[in-house]
Amino acid sequence: MPTNDAGKRTIGSVNRALDVLEALRRLNGATLAELAEEVDLSKGALHTHLATLCDHGFVEHRGDGYALGQRFITFGEYVRNSSPLYHAAKGEVDDLAAETGECVHLITEDAGLENILYESFGDRAVGQEFFVKNREKMGRHLHYSAAGKAILAEFDDDELDAHLDRHGLPRRTEHTITDREAFEDELERIRERGYSTNDEEDLLGVRAVGTSILGPDGDVLGALSVSAPASRLDGERFDDEFPRKVTETVNIVEVNLQTMNGDA
């Protein structure tokens, strides 16, 4: 029986089915021949996997090929709607986007990578297509986004070492911090001032400010950030106004979480 990187036993057929789904997502749909080049399966075995996935609604025929099925919409909505963080933060994210006019992101960490749980666009928000495409991607790193850095700043030394050993600090733009010692210094500054920044480290011309969100038990649940053009998010707005607004919003979210759990 196969094992994963942690040495745990896994089911080979499930692994292969997931490989097929991931290839369809990555290729934005594909023919049988195209999929056969991406996954380690014969065309016959691949066809059997696809037929099974089609029967369950996870894959659908599209033209002369295959694409992810709409069953994933139901699963995705269920997962998000089951999240206490989503319910505690959604209204506050919308309010902050309306107040600032910019883009507000609510993210969580999943296996050391970024997951966008929710986002809201104000009337002056830029880069909406970029952010929407990011939402569809899997495997976005934490170290070049404000929200991601806020989450990493909550890691203890052992957790951070394990994360950096596994994921590294790949360059996203010329401003991305890729030196480990410099990044650890950046996290220390985040802990001292209580908020994080992204200074064109993810997308040139865009800055962001973020803060981690803690649950009633003190565990980090995610983070919230506001992104805006560097020409608008500068000076006092970058150093004081937006950090204050983000921190105030996160405080409300954390109170909402306590109230939902009956701890208030």
From TrEMBL:
IclR-ED domain location is: 71-259
Q: Name one Pfam family in it.
A: HTH_IclR
Sorted alphabetically, which keywords does the UniProt record give? DNA-binding, Transcription, Transcription regulation
PROSITE patterns membership: HTH_ICLR, ICLR_ED
Extract the GO molecular function terms from the UniProt entry: DNA binding
Q: Where is the HTH iclR-type domain?
A: 11-70
Extract the Gene3D superfamilies matched here. Answer: 3.30.450.40, Winged helix-like DNA-binding domain superfamily/Winged helix DNA-binding domain
Q: Does the keyword Transmembrane apply?
A: no
Q: Which SMART domains match?
A: HTH_ICLR
* UniProt GO BP: regulation of DNA-templated transcription
Q: What's the name of the protein?
A: IclR family transcriptional regulator
Q: Which organism is it from?
A: Halospeciosus flavus
